[in-house]
Every structure is written in C-alpha cells, then in structure tokens.
Specification:
With 448 residues, this protein is an alpha+beta fold. Helix content is 27%, strand content 36%. The strands form 6 sheets. Strands 16, 17, 19, 20 and 21 form a 5-stranded antiparallel beta sheet that branches. Strand 12 and strand 13 form a beta hairpin. Helix 4 packs antiparallel against helix 5. The radius of gyration is 38 Å and the shape is elongated. It starts with 6 loop residues before the first strand and ends in a 15-residue tail after the last helix.
Length: 448
C-alpha cells in the first residue's frame, strides 16, 4: 500500500502447511534483505519510489526459505489541482555494486541503472585525494547491471602494487531524460594478486640453528601484488634418517609485496621442529611458497649443525653412493685406448654418466650441514676433491671429443691431483673417525 512520499506498507499473506510459518522479510534489494520479521507481525514499511520492485519471502520453523514474491510499486498519481501541467522527468540513479582492479590495471566499477524512463548515460570518474585520475563512460539499460572499466595511470598502478590498497572515490554522473545527477561514493582499490613465483632462495641464518630466511620474486602485471604463504616442509634429517612421526610442517610465514621486487621472510622452527632438531642435530627442510592456489617449492636447506660422527658417516655414504663412477670412467678410457670405442663416443659417455654423477655428489656434500670446527679442513678437502675431479672429467671429455686419446690427454695432471687430494682426505677422515669407532673403507673402494 502506497503511503506518503516513497513509504510503502507491505502486508503479506503467507501460509505454511508443514512445520508452520515462523518469519518473513520484505526488501527492495534481495542481495541485502535485512533482518527477519516475526511471523506474528502483520506488516512493515519500506522506502520504494514508484516503479521499483518490492520483494517478500517467508521462512518456516524448519528453516526453509521460500522463493521471492514481488510486486511493482505503482507510480503516484499526477497532481489533481493542475492536470495540464507537465510532470518533471523522473531522476535516474546509479547504484555501485562493486569495484575491483584487474590485471590489466583497470578499475572495474559495477553499476546498476535505476530509471523508469529509459537507459542511464553514465560517466564514471575515479578520484584520488579529490583529483581525477581516470574516466570512462557508457550506457546501462534501465534495471540492468553493467561493469565499466577505467584505465589507471602507470604511476598509480605501481603505487597500488607497493601499498596493496588505496582509498579513492568514484564520481558517477548519470543522465536520463535530460536530467543529470551526481553521486560520490568512497571505494578502496585493491591490487590484484600476482600469479606465480619466478625465483626462490633460502638459507639458514648464521648463528641461529632454528631460523631460515626465504627470498623470492613473484611474476605479475604492473599493479599486481604478491600475497604468499611460505610453509617449511620437513624432508628428513641431515644424516639420512627419516623424521619421526611423519611431521611435514615445521614453520610458516607470510610474504607480501609488489610483484617483480625481491621479497623476504624469516621462518622460525615450531616447537616440534626445534625438538626434532635437538634430537637429530640437523633437519633437511624445503620452503614451499603458496600463491594464487599454486605451490612453488624452493631449494632444500639443512638447518642445524652435525656431530663429527654423523658428518663422517654422511660423507662416506655420499661418496660411496655413486662409487661405480670411478670404475666406469676407467673402463671408458680403456675402451677408447683399445679402439673398441671412438673418442667421441667416450666423450659422450663421460658427459652423460660420469659428470652428472660427480656433480650430484658434490651438490649433496655441499648441502650437508657443517661439521664441528675441527673438521673444517677435512670438509674443504672433500669438496675440493670433487671440484677437481669434475674439472678433470670435463677437460678429458673435451679432449676426446676433439679426437684425442687417453694416452695423450694433457689433462691427466688434474686426475692425479684429484687422487692426491682424495688420499689426503681419506687419511684425515680416518684419523678423526678412529676415536668414534667408525671404519673408513680402503681408498680403492672410494672415489673420486
């Protein structure tokens, strides 16, 4: 029932033959219907100009909600005292249904036209601190919704990526039947999410055995912002033992900043992670960066330090793990010298099998947590032996590829040097291992 002005009295008729009628709602905006009214209440009032639709729905005691029933508010009658006088055109209005920033750097403004006499001609202006920064226009049909895109300037996109959000104002100038109305609506521009991680690095903090730093860069458009979670996954212990109780996460941190810039995070082990670190001496962990629903694994890092015994056992295990490589290399050189394999085939075999095996072992030895200070020199010898061996293999493969033979290989001195370093390394390891009850195999069973 129409009352004075735009006030409308709604008196519904609602029946429920099941659990019984409990409550009802009346609104002009079904996306925001407001509070529920008790079923005992006979009527309510809403503000709705002529031509607008009013919606009503009921709720039974079981919580079931009916579909919306609707009725259009009748237009008010023309003034009876001046029937010949023309009425002023109805003023159109625009309702903002939402704003966002897309990856192209456009401010996307959702609009709905409320007009009873044709479409709305809209001009949308985005203002920052009262100054216009972007403008767009368009036509929206009466009662319809439409999104309009206004390109943001590059400087504002960069600022949005750095800050994440920026306060702004949308000024909508709406024209219908020659009448223009202006409405200013405060909004918040939110930077879109970057889509992927393009680089990730991790390292243990010196002087701290339970903290890891993670650095990464995210790939995104000019306005995009990286909003990521870094989860520290436990892979095992430095001595090769599996972690107890299948624990998979031992730390977490947030990482946020403009895409394309270097971002950092510090991850401290959880109480469980610290307990495992104390028990095993070192933990093999990997940061996994989650962004936009995707996971990007970072490099494997060892946290903590290793005891002398654990480090020696781990080193022996690593240099024995691919121990056949030394015999394989000698066999390849013998085949080439005997003429049963061409020098080029020998080079290809070294590059395919020997070099990757040595490089993998070198990487795994470098990844081991450092031993006590008294074994620092031995660690240097271990790494140097594989560095020199890898260099010797690379140089020999190049010599063979050029058609040379092992007997005239000018790089033989590198192999001799690697052997000398290995012999010294094993002797020093044996001295350190004897008091710990660890047996070091004979040199012929080890490589390089």
């Amino acid at each position: 029932t129409r009352g004075a002005g735009d006030v409308v009295t709604v008196t519904p008729t609602i029946n429920d033959a099941g659990s019984g009628f409990d409550a009802w709602q009346a609104t002009t905006d079904t996306s925001n219907p407001g509070a529920r009214l008790a079923g005992s209440r006979a009527s309510t009032t809403v503000t709705a100009p002529g031509g607008q639709t009013v919606y009503v729905r009921g709720i039974d005691r079981a919580g079931n909600v009916s579909a919306w029933s609707s009725a259009v508010v009748p237009m008010p009658p023309a003034p009876a005292t001046a029937p010949a006088q023309a009425t002023a055109p109805a003023q159109a209005t625009i309702v903002l249904t939402g704003t966002s920033v897309n990856n192209a750097g456009d401010a996307v403004v959702g609009t709905t036209c409320r007009s009873v006499s044709g479409p709305c001609q809209i001009k949308v202006i985005v203002l920052i601190n009262g100054s216009p920064v972007s403008t767009t226009d368009g036509e929206v049909a009466s009662g319809a919704s439409k999104s309009l895109s206004a390109k943001l300037p590059a400087t504002l996109q960069r600022q949005l990526a750095r800050k994440g959000t920026i306060k702004a104002t949308v000024r909508s100038e709406v024209t219908s039947d020659g009448t223009t109305s202006i409405v200013n609506t405060p909004i918040t521009l939110v930077a879109p999410d970057a889509k992927q991680v393009v680089q990730a690095r991790a390292a243990a903090i010196k002087g701290s055995s339970d903290t890891l730093t993670v650095a990464a860069r995210c790939k995104g458009t000019l306005a995009a912002r990286c909003r990521a979670t870094v989860n520290l996954e436990l892979l095992g212990t430095g001595s090769g033992r599996r972690a107890a109780n299948q624990v998979t996460s031992v730390g977490k941190a947030r990482m946020e900043g403009a895409s394309g810039t270097r971002l950092g995070a510090k991850i401290v082990l959880t109480a469980t992670g610290r307990r495992l670190l104390k028990k095993y001496g070192t933990l093999r962990v990997r940061p996994v960066i989650s962004i936009s629903g995707k996971k990007f694994p970072g490099p494997v890092v060892l946290l903590g330090g290793m005891s002398a015994g654990d480090w020696i056992r781990a080193v022996l295990a690593e240099i024995n793990r691919r121990g056949e490589a030394r015999a394989d290399l000698n066999a390849i050189l013998d085949y080439v010298e005997a003429g049963t394999m061409t020098p080029q085939a020998g080079a290809a075999a070294i590059e395919k099998d020997i070099q990757p095996a040595r490089a993998e072992t070198l990487a795994r030895l470098r990844a081991l947590a450092p031993p006590p200070a008294r074994l620092a020199r031995v660690r240097t010898e271990v790494l140097e032996a594989f560095v020199v061996s890898l260099a010797a293999d690379t140089a020999t493969a190049a010599h063979l590829r050029a058609g040379g033979k092992p007997t005239n290989d000018p790089n033989s001195h590198l192999h001799v040097r690697a052997t000398d370093i290995k012999t010294k390394m094993l002797a020093d390891i044996a001295v350190a291992a004897k008091p710990l009850g660890i047996t070091v195999p004979p040199a012929r069973n080890l490589w390089p």
